[in-house]
């Protein structure tokens, strides 16, 4: 009975590890290919001049500052000492950022699968004080943004930064 459970569990893991429905010999079709991020790109966390808000997300405040996530890009920083006239003062570049919280002079955020802790005593000159690798093991970017054919993501090439739609030949995966 124990062997059956082990075999069933192994089969389940293999099923979960697959990248979607396997497809063969469909010819040329419109589909998605993954674009990978390098570890150098992932670790490029820094303050920059303000940038436009494109896909704003969650917000948090600390003292006279408001911090707003720019989904997958980083965090906007506003001076809100006059709440009727917030002023953009910086942008904190954090690739794959989606979440934030603040405690004292520290901002906590995700950086793809890692948890990063930033010292925000000077929001225009942040520093990474700690990184917890693989704190968030799941990635929702392993699949394209819409159903259809795609080239399977290859974890050995790094994390998937985005997906590009183009003509692909005999893709192995679909969803």
Write the layout of secondary structure elements.
Blueprint: H1 2-17, E1 21-22, E2 28-36, H2 39-42, E3 46-48, E4 56-62, E5 65-70, E6 74-79, E7 87-93, E8 100-103, E9 106-111, E10 114-119, E11 127-132, E12 149-150, E13 160-169, E14 173-174
Parallel strand pairs: 2-12
Antiparallel strand pairs: 1-14, 2-13, 3-7, 4-5, 5-6, 6-7, 8-9, 9-10, 10-11, 12-14
Can you offer a commentary on this structure?
It is a single chain. The protein is mainly beta and 175 residues long. It is 11% helix and 43% strand. It has 2 helices and 14 strands. The strands form 3 sheets. Strands 1-14-12-2-13 form a 5-stranded mixed beta sheet, with no helix packed on it. β10 (114-119) and β11 (127-132) form a beta hairpin. The radius of gyration is 20 Å and the shape is elongated. Residues 3-20 have low confidence and may be disordered.
Number of strands: 14
Strand-pairing-aware structural class: mainly beta
* Overall pLDDT: 86
* Spatial separation of the terminal alpha carbons: 34 Å
Counting H and I runs of at least 4 residues, what is the number of helices? 2
* Sequence of strands across the biggest β-sheet: 1-14-12-2-13
- Beta-strand portion reads 35-45%
Stretches with pLDDT under 50, minimum 5 residues: 3-20
Q: State the shape.
A: elongated
Element-by-element helix/strand order: HEEHEEEEEEEEEEEE
Helix content: 10-25%
Taking all Cα atoms into account, the compactness measure Rg is 20 Å
| Sheet of most strands | 5 strands, mixed
């Amino acid at each position: 009975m124990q062997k059956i459970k082990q075999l069933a569990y192994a089969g389940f893991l293999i099923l979960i590890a697959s990248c979607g429905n396997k497809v063969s010999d469909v010819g040329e079709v419109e589909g998605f290919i993954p674009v990978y991020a390098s570890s150098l790109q992932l670790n490029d966390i820094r303050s920059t001049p303000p940038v436009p808000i494109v896909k704003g997300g969650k917000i948090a405040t600390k003292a006279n500052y408001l911090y707003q996530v720019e989904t997958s890009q980083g965090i906007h920083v506003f001076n809100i000492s006059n709440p009727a006239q917030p002023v953009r003062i910086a942008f904190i570049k954090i690739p794959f950022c989606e979440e934030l919280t603040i405690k004292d002079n520290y901002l906590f955020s995700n950086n793809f699968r890692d948890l990063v802790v930033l010292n925000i005593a000077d929001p225009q000159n942040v520093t990474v004080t700690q990184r917890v690798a693989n704190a968030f093991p799941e990635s929702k970017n392993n699949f394209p943004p819409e159903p259809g054919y795609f080239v399977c993501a290859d974890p050995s090439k790094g994390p998937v930064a985005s997906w590009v739609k183009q003509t692909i030949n005999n893709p192995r995966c679909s969803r």
